[in-house]
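S.,

Sequence below, as promised.
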Amino acid sequence: MSEAEAKQIERMKTLLADQKAAFRSDRHRPIEKRKADLDRIAELCRKNADAIAEAISRDFGNRAKQESVIAEIAFVIQDVAHTKKHLAKWMKPRKVGVPLTLMPGKATIRREPKGVVGIVSPWNYPFQLAMAPLVAALGAGCRALIKPSELTPATAEIMKSLIADAFEEDHVSVITGGPAVGEAFSKLKFDHLFYTGSTQVGRLVALAAADNLVPVTLELGGKSPAIVTPGYPKDNAAKSIGWGKLFNAGQTCVAPDYVLAPKGSERDLGEAIIKVAQHQYPEAASDDAYTAIVSDKHYERLAGMIEEARQGGAEILQPEHDAQAAQAARKIPPTVLINPPEDAKVMTEEIFGPILPVVGYTELDAATDYIADRDHPLALYVYSTDKAQAEELLDRTMSGGAGVNINLLHLSVPDLPFGGVGASGQGAYHGESGFMTFTHERSVFKTGKWHPSRLLAPPYGKFAENIAKKQMK
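The prediction came back faster than expected:
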């Protein structure tokens, strides 16, 4: 551990203590202050959109400004607007019924902020996946420490600067640093820890948090499949799947990770997807709209996946491109792999890149069995012209979220909970689900000066027997 990392670790311990003290003195932040907090987030997005997009592009080596605006900056602004619109309703205490045997009395559920939360954000959408959980936390009345990924340092630094300008350190603060800082961050005694990233690291985060019994939300990943049913128009499927797979060069947790297609149609569908890619990105190496791979390590990992599949007998489909120029720009061209070996890394590991295996199935039952035999994915996509068939496929599978004849966009619906299931994550956020993630539902039962329950105390008599008989009914 470097001296700088050691200083950062000590600093974040101090910040956590300061935030906990500040929370104790402002435990029930009123709605006006919460809305003002949210407004500060929206304002820093609007005023600094160009600088944020530029920082993200610098971290990746290249990313289209439009992608960063749509998927990161505007997403957060819309999230703020939705949260403000519904915040009064979400905050309102809820009355619940009281059994006759416990009358008279009133029962209420108070929605209270959990306290100080930790947010660990990843590199693939480095702004949105830090700020969207922050919007939920601030809406819930919490305070927050954010630890961005070290793979996107320019974005981390601009977030740190913008947050420091907008908030006091004892309210919201950003901690930067490498793996040692991230590990120490996960071990802090937060009131809630929110992690977005890989399943492998998610396990370590959960173990670290368990030492202090810190509740965690894990937004992980997995291999999200797309099922194309017999008779579904090939070109329609290719346009949708191709767009979703190639947005951010496939570096999206809910991008289609593989396609299950009717046996015999794999190549036709693969060629149609490559045709879409050629239209969207005429030259992968030099097209500014086509995002680069975030690091040399990830580029080499993806190139190795393609080569392993090639050696295993998979057919490789790619648009024409300048291979040397693409490598120099750290760009993997859009790639479709036809029927790669089942044990190849592209079929066993989350790809996180513009590589799409297309695998043939003989019947739909075999396709759903294939999915069910594996870890539950973060997302699943069904392409079918038959509504009943689509519902049946959803019934026979399990995933964090799903789309029918579309992909990716379910996470953009504010009132849909976003999260995984099993190995793809635990807990959810967005909209009210995000508010509730950082909220404690506190149960309160009130009575007057006297309550009949006092008659239930020993020595037990006829009244207690009658109450017991009523309850047993």
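The first strand starts at residue 94 and ends at 96.

Coffee later?
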